[in-house]
């Protein structure tokens, strides 16, 4: 069995660990280095990618974990009830939020 490749800690370059332990190490090292951590940010495509805030946009644009799906805009279709005009409000019974603490209010026979 080949040894796992070592990753370098972004908070302290002297720290090297197997990739399988990186996420755990980052969490503890972030707490131990709060001044450095304030200047760093996590990549939205891979939480183990920690880069200086100033380089975050550049990193995310070129991140190896980024996929083509991430580039597609998220558009939801507009859904309008055919019985309502666009500015018409729904009835009060529809707008009421049920109390989550009330259970089984109907009686069984």
Automatic annotation (TrEMBL):
Q: Which InterPro entries match?
A: TRM13/UPF0224_CHHC_Znf_dom, UPF0224_FAM112_RNA_Proc, Znf_C2H2_sf
What are the recorded GO MF terms, alphabetically? zinc ion binding
Listed PROSITE patterns: ZF_CHHC_U11_48K
Alphabetized UniProt keyword annotations: Metal-binding, Zinc, Zinc-finger
- Look up keyword Zinc-finger and say if it applies: yes
**Domain of life where this protein originates:** Eukaryota
Native source species: Ursus americanus (American black bear)
> Is Ribosomal protein one of the keywords UniProt gives this record?
no
**Domain CHHC U11-48K-type positions:** 6-33, 40-67
Q: What is this protein called?
A: CHHC U11-48K-type domain-containing protein
